[in-house]
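lol forgot to send this yesterday, sorry. struct tokens for the thing we talked abt
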């Protein structure tokens, strides 16, 4: 298998250039609907949900289906640091398998009047960021109190309410803690990233553009990193708007040239979401007072790796039964999205000469994620090349039996 993977990847890399890629969005497994759990009728700690994200921290990984939920409630109650009048942020222990959430006081020192958009890095789970009216803030974990410390301002970001998020990305010498936020730099509006020093409260590298809006929806916002099973960020869930209409988009990588792909359209304002495995959740202005929206999808993330190492390809799909798999294909190029009769989602890779990898099992465990480790040949000519990939989720016990994932890439440093 190793020799086969090396030869296939080498052949594809040598023939692929990703500069002109278009690709496709995650295929929908279950249409958008209001969450029964993350609703104001079920969770009586605020009057509305205006941001939601989920993170699988080390403290979550020992329990099947468990995530850390980070949510912004309107009029958050005082038990969790709110004042009952303004927006506030709160952390909960969410078990997707059991459909339970238990709210905690871990973010009580982080929340403040009109605090918004709490985001946590899940790899180590000890840094969070949040938006204040004065600008983005960062807080670190207190091992003694088992909660986040009071936050400090992040120097180097001039805007306010910039939708900050935080994650590790794979650097040349190992994972690097990175801040993501929305900004306009050199007349380009988009999502930017820079290395973050949480103790000093500042970014330490020049901001780098990682995503921008589309022609139809040019103003991108609400970036949430998408994490592989290495718990590094490899893509983005985000929103983008035209006028008063904001839709949800997905990027299978962190390359601004690949484009973002619409995963959910709406006539209202969709914003600030996250992923709990194959289930996407996000806020909806038409339903803030009722709760968060859910969308079941099949998604895929590639990786960036050096030669003579391995790339981790991560697949996820919302599934309620055992036995489903995602088959990932390597390709020489991308396509404009093509609808295929009998298949959900869109084909986004050129089918000529595609090469399948072994199926990735998608467990019915409330997390619904699996991965495959793809060896990268020890060949210096591959440096700087990218391999287009796309998955096909197969679940013969579902009404959606065959669903294409989004397109992504394996990039070689």
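and heres what i got for the seq, position by position
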């Amino acid at each position: 298998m190793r020799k086969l993977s090396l030869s296939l990847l080498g052949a594809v890399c040598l023939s692929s250039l990703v500069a002109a890629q278009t690709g496709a969005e995650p295929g929908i497994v279950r249409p958008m609907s209001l969450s029964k759990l993350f609703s104001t009728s079920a969770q009586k700690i605020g009057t509305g949900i205006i941001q939601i994200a989920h993170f699988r921290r080390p403290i979550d990984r020992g329990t099947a289906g468990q995530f850390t939920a980070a949510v912004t409630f309107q009029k958050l109650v005082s038990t969790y640091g709110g004042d009952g009048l303004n927006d506030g942020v709160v952390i909960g222990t969410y078990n997707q398998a059991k459909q339970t959430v238990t709210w905690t006081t871990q973010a009580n020192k982080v929340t403040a009047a009109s605090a918004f958009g709490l985001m946590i890095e899940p790899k180590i789970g000890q840094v969070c960021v949040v938006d204040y009216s004065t600008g983005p803030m960062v807080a670190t974990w207190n091992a003694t109190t088992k909660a986040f410390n009071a936050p400090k301002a992040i120097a180097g970001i001039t805007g306010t309410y910039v939708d900050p998020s935080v994650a590790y990305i794979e650097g040349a010498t190992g994972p690097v803690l990175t801040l993501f936020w929305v900004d306009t730099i050199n007349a380009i509006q988009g999502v930017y990233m820079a290395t973050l020093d949480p103790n000093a409260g500042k970014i330490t590298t020049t901001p780098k553009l990682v995503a921008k809006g589309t022609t139809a929806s040019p103003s991108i916002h609400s970036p949430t990193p998408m994490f592989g099973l290495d718990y590094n960020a490899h893509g983005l869930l985000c929103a983008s708007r035209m006028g008063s209409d904001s839709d949800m988009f997905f990027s299978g990588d962190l390359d601004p040239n690949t484009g973002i792909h619409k995963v959910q359209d709406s006539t209202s304002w969709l914003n600030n979401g996250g992923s709990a495995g194959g289930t996407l959740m996000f806020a909806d202005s038409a339903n803030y007072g009722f709760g968060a929206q859910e969308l079941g999808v099949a998604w895929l993330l590639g990786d960036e790796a050096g030669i003579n190492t391995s790339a981790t390809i991560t697949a996820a799909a919302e599934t309620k039964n055992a036995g489903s798999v995602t088959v990932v294909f390597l390709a020489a190029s991308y396509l404009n999205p093509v609808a295929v009769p009998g298949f959900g989602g869109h084909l986004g890779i050129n089918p000529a000469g595609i090469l399948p990898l072994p199926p990735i099992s998608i467990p019915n465990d409330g997390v619904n994620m699996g991965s495959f480790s793809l060896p990268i040949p020890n060949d210096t000519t591959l440096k700087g090349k990218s391999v287009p990939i796309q998955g096909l989720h197969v679940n013969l016990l579902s009404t959606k039996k065959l669903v294409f994932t989004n397109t992504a890439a394996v990039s070689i440093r």
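The domain at 2-24+302-412 is CATH 2.60.40 (Immunoglobulin-like). anyway ping me if u want another try
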